[in-house]
Amino acid sequence: MTDHAARIARILETHQDVVHVGGSTGALIKKDQLLVLDAHADAVHDGARRWVDRREDSGVPGVTVLRLRSDAGVDAAELTHQLRGGAGAHRRTSVTPNHVLQGAPGDITGGPEGKPTPAPDLAAPVGTDGEARQVTVGVLDTGIDEHPWFDKHPWYQDCTADQHEALNPAKESDMEPESGHGTFIAGVLMQHAPNVYLRFERVLEPDGVADELALLHGIAKLQAQAAAKGGNLDVVNLSLGCFTFDDRPSPVLADAVARLARQSVIVAAAGNAASDRPFWPAALKDVIAVAALAEQSAGTEPERAAFSNYGWWVDAAAPGEKIISSFLTHGEENNQQFHGFAKWSGTSFAAPYVAGKIAALMAAKGMTARDAVSELLNAAGPRIPDLGVVVSADR
């Protein structure tokens, strides 16, 4: 069994409301749920009425949830296909199964892309004075935990209890698979942009699982948080994603991302299935999709990490193997104790590498986010087929 297949099996075992559709190249979805943009909700409800148990307000502006009858035996993916008009439909109805998303560190069953391991302490990143502007990066992830790197920063002092990681209080127990994921990402961002102001929303559970609706809620809360503080949301990091049942984008998620992209540059992990299947939301046109580069020895050319996804839809590649960053100041894994730092691999950590580089350019040169992206990912930079522009220490 591959690492990716093992991870799917674990999710199906521990989440009874999740089903696998579409065979070996399929996707994970929530049972008996459809998400619909409000503009199409009446038409979709009418078309699926015989299978619908109830219609609900999702709590996200513009999105409706249809709950299907559990006794109807209907395949939500097949029903979605029909409601969209079938194969070849030009004007597609904005309805989707509620896909299950996963954080994108390496999968769980070993290999270089496996679980985090303890690492020696790193000196805290030191910012520079006189930066041209303050840059804000939003992170939708497992949340944030306390760490010596963070304590004195205003952004950490502004974090609420809901934005902190939901950790297992039993310190002698092994951690959930993605405990510390958001804390690690914060450290990667700070290593490249020490003065960055971070905004967190917790959407992933400690086992690294969320669904589209949770991500939609997180996007809405992140935008509301920025608006309430009267500040910008320059860059958003999404180290999570999923395959979809038909390898097309979810129209509901695509709509939310397009709205977010009007004000923010969005950077997302390309995923860790060693596949060229589009991984969403990274593969959306409004998103910078980031693959992972392997650990590089002196004198060698950069190359794809074995676990990293790749393909026409990938925009950039950055270091993503054996990265060292901030981690939990407690916790245990395989009888190894963590004391605030870890080594971990995955496209999850290549994405904030790129997001941090964008933030650093913005801060140093007073650039807009889009101008910083243009400079970082310009066509003259080194490129690798199916991995895009190489972003590394000298870029």
Automatic annotation (TrEMBL):
All copies of domain Peptidase S8/S53, residue ranges: 133-380
Keywords: Hydrolase, Protease, Serine protease
Residue ranges of the region described as Disordered: 83-127
Active-site feature positions: 141, 181, 348
Pfam families membership: Peptidase_S8
InterPro entries from the UniProt entry: Peptidase_S8/S53_dom, Peptidase_S8/S53_dom_sf, Peptidase_S8_Asp-AS, Peptidase_S8_Ser-AS, Peptidase_S8_subtilisin-like, Peptidase_S8_subtilisin-rel
Family per record: Belongs to the peptidase S8 family.
Protein name: S8/S53 family peptidase
UniProt source species: Catenulispora pinistramenti
